[in-house]
Amino acid sequence: xxxxxxxxxxxxxxxxxxxxxxxxxxxxxxxxxxxxxxxxxxxxxxxxxxxxxxxxxxxxxxxxxxxxxxxxxxxxxxxxxxxxxxxxxxxxxxxxxxxxxxxxxxxxxxxxxxxxxxxxxxxxxxxxxxxxxxxxxxxxxxxxxxxxxxxxxxxxxxxxxxxxxxxxxxxxxxxxxxxxxxxxxxxxxx
Length: 190
Prior knowledge:
Helix content: 40-55%
Number of domains: 2
Radius of gyration: 32 Å
Strand order of the largest sheet: 1-2-3
Distance between the termini: 118 Å
Shape: flat
Strand content: 5-15%
Structural class: alpha+beta
Oligomer: single chain
């Protein structure tokens, strides 16, 4: 029997063992690729289920209720992230609109606004910022839904500097009520 020497291989058995090794490595690589593909699909399916905008697509039992964030209101979270100087990629790992909403988005955003004001009192949030929340419920076999505004900041916000002036003004009014004001004094206050 004539043996052919191939770079680093000295026998027929070693050629078969090398081919077997290559086959096992290729099979392992294909399994890893398949697993990655399946996990990507699972993540995409989970995310697409969270971003359903049409309340008619939800399968609800009788009397059940479900709420989710309207697509146009999801920009509110992006604005909050910008105001807090948080990158979208960092924030999306820690809080997305869907994740926060599952734990009570409105309450969490209100907390974020309060925290932002606490640590940076000069930061201003516009008054009347709200989310439009869609609440879907199935009654008598029919799917009903309604829109509700959930305010993140109050409609009439009191700025930190204004609180001092309002307090002084209310104290002054209380003090004035104890004395007999003259007509000219009343006109000067107004």
